[in-house]
């Protein structure tokens, strides 16, 4: 068997997937071999199903998966169906490999005094006409009440903004139609206004707000005060409505109080009416912020509160644009809200907010999030049951009307306690129903024990046929909350090398111009009082300067331009004992500023293995006493 394996490794790049499977004894024998170990859930998957997940060496995945990273503060890129982790994008965290949070360029993105952590939950790609357009990703930071934008052409974070008047941005979604004009974000926790200590233990005076941010300028356009708190959010396919769940209608500040009521609600925002109120000046402002704030509490023209059992969590729009589905969490149900009836409500044709509900299927214990296959089926995670349930929306609606139909199609065990789940392209009108990932919060026994902190378990499920089939376990560092699956045809614009005119380092280029430096050519040190600006190039395997002389106490800015034009030829600059490391991709300019506080000799070196003489790619910083 060993021999055979070696042989096929050599031949691999030319093999079809089927040949690869046939020739790879270890994988080919999965059905039988794993059954022998007694791992029941894997035994259940047919080798033919698992076969579809194999991406042979040298071949590419069909989908980009974008995962949030939870308290790691980052976003990750995985290939689907292989589930290989392809890249990590630092967003709210500091990163020692790329120098994110250390370079001047990334500090401009993060802003002054940026906290070193974040808590990313919901990552979503910008839309044009109801489907992904490959321009941007947006993601929330629950920990420090911020949102960020990532440019998809270079996969770098290019904007980070704080959201005023709220605490803990949780749910985040994008306008889908006609394009992503707005980023909507939920302030989860209710707080006093102003939150300056003048109001403390008077929770009845707390409230929170829904925020709309302009996706192009990242300016905050307006906010809406709501009753209760805000958990998750989603938008429709007409551009008119957004919905958000509330799990603490009670406005309590303790656990028992938060679970007291049998129903909380889903609040639906009428975006054109809110915009009109803002235009007509029907708003207030809060504290120092100039953001227009519309009051959406109680019965207003802007909001509709749909009673929803019980402490609902996720809210998801069906890809046919017809329904918002709120996931019951403490109720075994999902609440299906008809967007057509929401139109009627706002037109004044309905009396009771419950009239917009068209189904309340009973699915199992702990429904958290729902996704779709584009064929009329929904898939919901059952946190407590550790299952994904597939159900049919049209049948659930018929059952609600009293017909005797079974809307449940299948339940499949997942391992264990799933939170989000997402099917391929499911949040677009092009939902294609091929793959589904279930992001399980616990992995327990699914992997070699690595200590007390375990990875999470992102399971890949084949949903292309009648029956769901579990086909892959993927460990992830704790803890991604959500993920999206984007067909690779949507990301044709991803660059291979930087454009010298890229705005990411435009300010640094301006600085060089003022110093009369041609970045692609010059290697020089410019002294300006006790400020020293060092310009140099990098080209494998050397820096333009192999020594830099400064004086103790100088503020030193090192600017490096990678003049290599070869794809993947990234250099770095790490300065020993100074906490400095930066990434310089091909044709990129990166800079870093620090104080030379210690006299002596400090080596700098390239930290990306770029050449046979990579270890020799180094130089000395000589700091005169
Ligand atoms: S939440 S596990 Cu932060 Cu998206 Cu539901
Ligand atoms: Cu340049 Cu290693």
Automatic annotation (TrEMBL):
<feature type="binding site">
    <location>
        <position position="122"/>
    </location>
    <ligand>
        <name>Cu cation Z3</name>
    </ligand>
</feature>
<feature type="binding site">
    <location>
        <position position="606"/>
    </location>
    <ligand>
        <name>Cu cation A2</name>
    </ligand>
</feature>
<feature type="binding site">
    <location>
        <position position="247"/>
    </location>
    <ligand>
        <name>Ca(2+) 2</name>
    </ligand>
</feature>
<feature type="binding site">
    <location>
        <position position="481"/>
    </location>
    <ligand>
        <name>Cu cation Z4</name>
    </ligand>
</feature>
<keyword id="KW-0560">Oxidoreductase</keyword>
<feature type="binding site">
    <location>
        <position position="441"/>
    </location>
    <ligand>
        <name>Ca(2+) 1</name>
    </ligand>
</feature>
<protein>
    <recommendedName>
        <fullName>Nitrous-oxide reductase</fullName>
        <ecNumber>1.7.2.4</ecNumber>
    </recommendedName>
</protein>
<comment type="pathway">
    <text>Nitrogen metabolism; nitrate reduction (denitrification); dinitrogen from nitrate: step 4/4.</text>
</comment>
<feature type="binding site">
    <location>
        <position position="571"/>
    </location>
    <ligand>
        <name>Cu cation A1</name>
    </ligand>
</feature>
<feature type="binding site">
    <location>
        <position position="369"/>
    </location>
    <ligand>
        <name>Cu cation Z1</name>
    </ligand>
</feature>
<dbReference type="InterPro" id="IPR006311">
    <property type="entry name" value="TAT_signal"/>
</dbReference>
<dbReference type="GO" id="GO:0050304">
    <property type="term" value="F:nitrous-oxide reductase activity"/>
</dbReference>
<dbReference type="InterPro" id="IPR008972">
    <property type="entry name" value="Cupredoxin"/>
</dbReference>
<feature type="binding site">
    <location>
        <position position="610"/>
    </location>
    <ligand>
        <name>Cu cation A2</name>
    </ligand>
</feature>
<feature type="binding site">
    <location>
        <position position="614"/>
    </location>
    <ligand>
        <name>Cu cation A2</name>
    </ligand>
</feature>
<dbReference type="InterPro" id="IPR011045">
    <property type="entry name" value="N2O_reductase_N"/>
</dbReference>
<dbReference type="InterPro" id="IPR015943">
    <property type="entry name" value="WD40/YVTN_repeat-like_dom_sf"/>
</dbReference>
<dbReference type="InterPro" id="IPR051403">
    <property type="entry name" value="NosZ/Cyto_c_oxidase_sub2"/>
</dbReference>
<dbReference type="GO" id="GO:0005509">
    <property type="term" value="F:calcium ion binding"/>
</dbReference>
<keyword id="KW-0479">Metal-binding</keyword>
<dbReference type="GO" id="GO:0042597">
    <property type="term" value="C:periplasmic space"/>
</dbReference>
<comment type="function">
    <text>Nitrous-oxide reductase is part of a bacterial respiratory system which is activated under anaerobic conditions in the presence of nitrate or nitrous oxide.</text>
</comment>
<dbReference type="InterPro" id="IPR041114">
    <property type="entry name" value="Nos_propeller"/>
</dbReference>
<comment type="similarity">
    <text>Belongs to the NosZ family.</text>
</comment>
<dbReference type="Pfam" id="PF13473">
    <property type="entry name" value="Cupredoxin_1"/>
</dbReference>
<comment type="similarity">
    <text>In the C-terminal section; belongs to the cytochrome c oxidase subunit 2 family.</text>
</comment>
<dbReference type="InterPro" id="IPR034205">
    <property type="entry name" value="N2OR_C"/>
</dbReference>
<dbReference type="InterPro" id="IPR028096">
    <property type="entry name" value="EfeO_Cupredoxin"/>
</dbReference>
<dbReference type="GO" id="GO:0004129">
    <property type="term" value="F:cytochrome-c oxidase activity"/>
</dbReference>
<dbReference type="GO" id="GO:0019333">
    <property type="term" value="P:denitrification pathway"/>
</dbReference>
<dbReference type="GO" id="GO:0005507">
    <property type="term" value="F:copper ion binding"/>
</dbReference>
<feature type="region of interest" description="COX2-like">
    <location>
        <begin position="530"/>
        <end position="625"/>
    </location>
</feature>
<feature type="binding site">
    <location>
        <position position="121"/>
    </location>
    <ligand>
        <name>Cu cation Z2</name>
    </ligand>
</feature>
<feature type="binding site">
    <location>
        <position position="170"/>
    </location>
    <ligand>
        <name>Cu cation Z2</name>
    </ligand>
</feature>
<dbReference type="InterPro" id="IPR002429">
    <property type="entry name" value="CcO_II-like_C"/>
</dbReference>
<feature type="binding site">
    <location>
        <position position="264"/>
    </location>
    <ligand>
        <name>Ca(2+) 2</name>
    </ligand>
</feature>
<keyword id="KW-0186">Copper</keyword>
<feature type="binding site">
    <location>
        <position position="313"/>
    </location>
    <ligand>
        <name>Cu cation Z1</name>
    </ligand>
</feature>
<keyword id="KW-0732">Signal</keyword>
<feature type="binding site">
    <location>
        <position position="617"/>
    </location>
    <ligand>
        <name>Cu cation A1</name>
    </ligand>
</feature>
<feature type="binding site">
    <location>
        <position position="608"/>
    </location>
    <ligand>
        <name>Cu cation A2</name>
    </ligand>
</feature>
<feature type="binding site">
    <location>
        <position position="420"/>
    </location>
    <ligand>
        <name>Cu cation Z3</name>
    </ligand>
</feature>
